[in-house]
Amino acid sequence: MPDPRPAPVTVPMVRAAKVRDGHQPLVMVTAYDAPGARIVDAAGVDLILVGDSVANAVLGYEDTLQVTVDDMAHHVAAVARARPGALIVGDLPWMSYHVDVADTVRNGAALIRADAQCVKLEGGAVRAPMVEALVRAEIPVMGHIGLTPQSVNAMGGFRVQARDDEAAADLIAGAQVLVEAGVFAIVVEGVPEKVGHALTAALDVPTIGIGAGPGCDGQVLVLHDLLGVTERTAKFVRRYATLADDATAAVAAFAADVRSGAFPSDAEVYH
Ligand code: KIV
Q: What is the pTM of this model?
């Protein structure tokens, strides 16, 4: 498959990738291990997000609040061992950047030492001091605003955000503060299409949407959602495969062959 993307992808390349300046939309997909990273990198994605969605997609939790910095470092390192050309984004988990600026930098450094090339954190203007400290420590930061899954309890569930004009204006103002603090791109999740557009027009850094409509500078999906591995998905997910069904059928075929004696065949035996 032709690789449409120059590799390796760097933070300055992503920072410059505004669609209004003639760039192609950015493509970001999650991965949590080396085979996943090899698959998405071979497909030519620009960025691999080692997301805290590992909690739901892989570890069986209902939300993302249970994963720790050590968990995230473990998955970042596994992705990095695949040596992808795509930029590796390490997701800072809940409580790793909420208490103290020094802790935030130490936790960011843990993901960089695990071989992430940048980190992502959730929240608006309130995170500006953390973003500034990370950037001062030479750790590039991606923002994440709108429906921020780590705020599930504060939001009262996974709900579309910024539905009225006042909330949309607040979201845009908060995003501008993050840009001033130094983020090089912002994930925009779970907002009405017109808010995705407005953010993209207002900000000088690329917006990467998930459930934020086509007006963003790029799109991100969770690998297990787009491959049809996860059971339930949100409205904004498009499934490009049915891997759970295909995998179950494959294992069922193996089980049937073992039980009927058709496996192993003569060709599958050492003589
Ligand atoms: O953890 C994750 O996968 C994310 C995406 C939903 C953007 O943060």
A: 0.96
